[in-house]
Amino acid sequence: ILGVLSQDGMMRFIHIHTCRLLFHMGSHDDAITTVSVSPSGRHVVAVMDNGSINIYSVQSLTQELNKPPPSQVAVVSGGEADQDFSGLKVKVRSEVVQRPARSSGRRTQVKILRPPTVSAAEDKENELPAGLNKKRLVALLKAFGEYPAKYRMFVWRSLLCLPENHAAYSSLTDKGLHSAYLTLHDKYPIKSHKLQRGLQRVLSALAHWAAIFGEVEYLPLVAFPFVKLFQNNPMLCFEVVATVIVNWCQHWFEYFPNPPLNILSMAENVLAHHDKELLQHLVDCGITSQLYVWPLLETLFSEVLTRDEWLKLFDNIFSNHPSFLLMACTAYIICCREPLLLCSQKQDFEYFFHHRNNLDVGAMIKEAYRLMGSTPADIHPRTLLSDFTPLTKGQYPVFNHYPEFIVEYQSREREKIRLQEMEYLRERQEVSA
């Protein structure tokens, strides 16, 4: 039996000969950080994320293994399709279909569902690392609306083609904490010290990668959801955030320190085409795209969606062209048109786009797909944004899509203030001594 501590904080025990999952410990809400097995193998000690220590009896955990499996009527599988992710098995359980008392002896004919044939060239274009196929993953996504929670992180890693540059990442972390994030806890206090350190580490690596990421005030809001998801693997977390920045944050920093007005105007043009009445209401109330689009983008929807809703949305964002994020923003606004038409004060709009609202995220995603397919080419963000480009293997790409002189000036000013504060504290200590 092999015990594996996964990055989601759960420890799973697998039979190495049958590759069957036997049992697991921990949960997403009560994650495990480290484990130790007693010499006799009878007990497992786990240190939890909240600081508590749990002791598990292996004998009690294995009692479930002796229970008979649930009965099945039929198993449908598709030949060679079992070799990849598309080989799904359909099981009909006894609680749904009554099992007959006796077998009639006749052989049941089962229709095998095979994926549609595609050309070798087209299939090669959709190939992903680890043998997955993007076209089949997207078909799975459209059928169920989201990826299975159990495999979501694996699917995301494949969709984003993460290079896993261990040496390059180590060279960034070896530089230590970036001076811009030494006092991160003052601006963004987080209850979990582990998450606080994880966020600080990822942000520091980003700042060492490109100087602008030590100056972008909203970067913690962009990175934090991914830090929570990949808290046990900081390198993957860094690469996910870097991939998001390179692809889904295109042109965000060209007007730094101001919001990306060119990107906001793309979303505004799409809204003008599909819902003129709503846009006119926003204009009449003096509300610009900096207030109704930018809050969604700079937080990547983390303030307005629950965890499950956010994961479902990003299943779709990572499976589509980078322009899908802008379409999702416009779709969110259109799906909320009724309460927005009732707002008239600026503070009401500000509150609305920074808090959760009564929204069907499934309907919002469906609307985003409609916008992707029905928006004219001359205003479609797809024509203005580049296709997805993964991070390069070996070394991370150079990121310089920002006004370097402004970033350098702000960096010098911030360092000057930090040194002045240190000098002031030193003088106070000397006076008090």
UniProtKB/TrEMBL annotation:
Q: Which GO terms describe its molecular function?
A: molecular adaptor activity
- Cite the SMART domains for this sequence: WD40
Localization, UniProt: Cytoplasm, Cytoskeleton, Cilium basal body; Cytoplasm, Cytoskeleton, Microtubule organizing center, Centrosome, Centriolar satellite
Q: Which GO terms describe its cellular component?
A: centriolar satellite; ciliary basal body
Q: Does the keyword Repeat apply?
A: yes
The GO annotation for biological process reads: cilium assembly
WD repeat intervals: 25-66
Q: What is its main location?
A: cytoplasm
Signal peptide from the UniProt entry: none
Q: What InterPro entries does the record point to? A: Rab-GAP-TBC_dom, Rab-GAP_TBC_sf, TBC1_cilium_biogenesis, WD40/YVTN_repeat-like_dom_sf, WD40_repeat_dom_sf, WD40_rpt
Locate the Rab-GAP TBC domain: which residues?
146-321
Q: Which UniProt keywords apply?
A: Cell projection, Cilium biogenesis/degradation, Coiled coil, Cytoplasm, Cytoskeleton, Repeat, WD repeat
Its job? Molecular adapter which is involved in cilium biogenesis. Part of a functional complex including OFD1 a centriolar protein involved in cilium assembly. Could regulate the cAMP-dependent phosphorylation of OFD1, and its subsequent ubiquitination by PJA2 which ultimately leads to its proteasomal degradation.
Q: Which PANTHER family match?
A: TBC1 DOMAIN FAMILY MEMBER 31, WD REPEAT CONTAINING PROTEIN 3 WDR3
Q: What is this protein called?
A: TBC1 domain family member 31
Name the source organism.
Stegastes partitus
